[in-house]
Specification:
The chain is an alpha/beta fold. The chain contains 17 helices and 14 strands.
Length: 460
């Protein structure tokens, strides 16, 4: 397989470590851990490690890696207390990334149910503080007043076991009313600027999930060291093309360039949605680069834009780390022909109807207990990917229907299933992708109930 050949070439570039992958995929957790240990041993033996390309970030006066490690999607495992971070595997992945030049780590209060900050801080503690860059964020959705913000910031420093953050953000800004009420009227923005003046924040920016007019207001009225936006080729809109849903990245990017504000990027692969395209779209890209992954195309598209400093990728397994590091070593911008090929894929795939959920979990918690992200993920992975269309379920085979129902039943507690949605709308303003969540959840529940009746496999 091409992927296997590609990976073996990559392993040689990293130090001659081959034979880890079989049929283009790692066999099991133990083999992954073995590979990571051997990569570490190669460095200790003096092997030259491949390093990701770096770009200069003026507010810090230093070069940052083009690829950052997003700390919201670590590998997880089940324990007696539920799903938790797979600490051993995740730490070894962070160490691997660090060895290969990825020394920018992006965490937040909400990630991994509040456990990401402490985990990342504990792992990075073994490295000299000046050798890595740490990003954290003020959790806007839970803020009430200035005193709470001060307590949160101090707690974040303690959780991360650091004395300062290299980049710090106002997290998930989504409306001017909320921004004015909290950051201006409560004085939280002034407080964060004071923390910057004292050196506990080295550069101050924001991450954005609002609309274009609000973004223009932020950029026109306030000075920022940087901002983080969702930027990928599926969300791009051209000059004069009206924004639609999450398709507004072009407007945001052009405003950043106008204001000369450095750009950090979230969701460059749109939560994995651009890692797997339609057969027709993939054929267009493979005609240009037969061995390249679909995710690598998405990363190179974003990295080819002027003003972009670091792409944050929420890497949840080692294969993603390997592919991303390979893509960002000796970074090669898209050629004119390659950029044209991506445009062709958008034309062919524009009517796919695929759910654009990136599993960020900003929609949590649902007042009625629905695990929205997991419902979408199970449908996309075991339903949509298998050809089980929400509008035309009759086209699927009996085997596909039963397999989807089995995954749905086994991976969701009854209280978490779509049937508990009341369409209250609490989730709607939280979704960065502007998905009509109640509508889509209801459609999935209708599908589940229909298939349940057809197959005789009861699911509540």
């Amino acid at each position: 397989m091409q992927n296997g050949i590609n990976r073996r070439s990559f392993l040689k570039a990293l130090g001659g470590l081959a034979g880890v992958a079989a049929a283009g995929a790692f066999l099991n957790r133990e083999e992954i851990l073995s590979f990571l240990d051997r990569d570490k041993a190669a460095e200790e033996a003096g092997e030259i490690m491949g390093q990701v390309t770096r770009r200069y970030f003026a507010p810090l006066g230093q070069e940052l890696p083009m690829l950052g490690f997003g700390c919201m999607r670590f590998p997880t495992k089940f324990s007696t207390s539920g799903r938790e971070i797979d600490a051993e595997l995740s730490e070894k992945m962070i160490d691997f990334a660090y060895r290969h030049g990825i020394n920018y780590f992006d965490t937040a209060w909400f990630y991994h149910d509040g456990k990401s900050e402490s985990f990342v801080g504990g792992v990075l503690k073994k490295y000299p503080r000046e050798s890595f860059f740490l990003a954290d964020k003020m959790p806007t959705p839970m803020l009430t007043d200035l005193s709470q913000a001060k307590e949160i910031f101090q707690t974040q420093l303690e959780r991360c076991q650091v004395e300062y953050f290299d980049t710090y953000m106002l997290h998930s800004l989504s409306s001017q009313e909320e921004f004015d009420r909290l950051y201006i009227n409560q004085g939280i923005l002034d407080y964060l600027r004071e923390e910057k003046a004292q050196g506990r924040i080295r550069s101050l920016g924001f991450s954005f999930h609002g609309d274009v007019p609000f973004f223009y207001h932020l950029m026109d009225q306030y000075p920022w060291d940087f901002c983080m936006i969702q930027l990928n080729y599926a969300d791009w809109n051209e000059p004069g093309e009206a924004p639609s849903g999450s398709r507004q990245a072009g407007d945001l990017y052009r405003k950043c360039r106008e204001k000369d504000v450095p750009i950090f990027v979230m969701e460059p692969v749109k939560g994995g949605n651009l890692a797997s395209l339609s057969e027709s779209a993939e054929s267009i890209l493979k005609a240009q680069r037969p061995d390249a992954s679909m995710a690598s195309w998405a990363l190179r598209w974003v990295g080819s834009l002027d003003g972009v400093i670091t792409l944050n990728s929420g890497m949840s397994n080692l294969e993603q780390v390997l592919d991303n590091v390979q893509t960002m070593m000796d970074f090669e911008p898209l050629s004119t022909a390659e950029a044209r090929a991506i445009q062709q894929t958008l034309g062919k795939a524009s009517d796919s109807g695929a759910l654009p959920c990136t599993y960020c979990r900003y929609c949590d918690p649902c007042p009625y207990g629905v695990d929205i992200a997991s419902v979408f993920r199970i449908y996309k992975r075991y339903g949509e990917a298998a050809g089980l269309d929400l509008e035309y379920p009759e086209r699927a085979s009996a085997r596909q229907k039963e397999a989807f129902l089995a995954h749905y039943k086994n991976n969701l507690e009854r209280s978490q299933r779509a049937s508990h949605c009341t369409a209250c709308g609490t989730c709607l303003p939280r979704c960065p992708q502007h998905i009509d969540i109640p509508k889509e959840i209801r459609a999935i529940d209708d599908l589940v109930q229909r298939l349940s009746r057809e197959t005789g496999k009861e699911v509540f």
